[in-house]
Amino acid sequence: HADIAVLDPRKMDSFKEITDLVEIKDGKAIIIQPGEFVLGVTMETLKLPDNLVARCEGRSSLGRIGLIIHSTAGFIDPGFEGTVTLEISNINRMPLALYPGMRIGQLAFETMTSPAEVPYNKKKCAKYQGQKLPEESKISKDAEFEN
């Protein structure tokens, strides 16, 4: 993707141009190179009620060898339904092998003191609701980037 000099949140197509969907067969590894960034997805589908939030955290044992499973999006909104896209990075100096079904993270659930006023599934721009595959960034759909 050498033809793209800058990832611009105002140009959604720039994200599609650098995103390839790769399906890993059972038993086969995906090798994540040092400094590489890939999107993954949980095997589980969540359906959170309006009074429950979740956080996605990596496993300590894998973090100790340089695996990060979410860059900044570890929070899962009340009302969200779908699989969770994982923002996977290898910050080690050596390649890391991951396998389908491998336990790389965990979810922590928290009950809110009251239901969300506007849960994710009721938001005007619930751009990741119902996702089943890893989804590339849709930041260009945010109100601040609309023309």
In short:
With 147 residues, the chain is mainly beta. 6% of the residues lie in helices and 31% in strands. The protein has two helices and eight strands; from the N terminus they run αβββαβββββ.
Task: Quote the distance from N terminus to C terminus.
Answer: 27 Å
Task: Give a short account of the largest sheet.
Answer: 3 strands, antiparallel
Helical segment count: 2
CATH architecture assignment of the domain at 27-114: Distorted Sandwich
CATH class of the domain at 27-114: Mainly Beta
- For this structure, the CATH topology of the domain at 27-114 is Deoxyuridine 5'-Triphosphate Nucleotidohydrolase, Chain A
Low-confidence stretches: none
Mean of the pLDDT scores?
A: 89
Structural features, described:
There is one protein chain. This protein has helices at residues 13-17, 60-63, and strands spanning 30-32, 37-47, 52-58, 67-68, 75-76, 81-90, 96-98, 105-111. It has 147 residues and is mainly beta. It has a domain at 27-114: Deoxyuridine 5'-Triphosphate Nucleotidohydrolase, Chain A (Distorted Sandwich), CATH 2.70.40.10. The strands form 3 sheets. Strands 2-6-4 form a 3-stranded antiparallel beta sheet, with no helix packed on it. It has a 3-stranded antiparallel beta sheet with strand order 5-3-8. The radius of gyration is 16 Å and the shape is globular. The two termini are 27 Å apart.
How is the secondary structure organized here?
Layout (H helix, E strand, L loop, with lengths): L12 H5 L12 E3 L4 E11 L4 E7 L1 H4 L3 E2 L6 E2 L4 E10 L5 E3 L6 E7 L36
Antiparallel strand pairs: 1-7, 2-6, 3-5, 3-8, 4-6
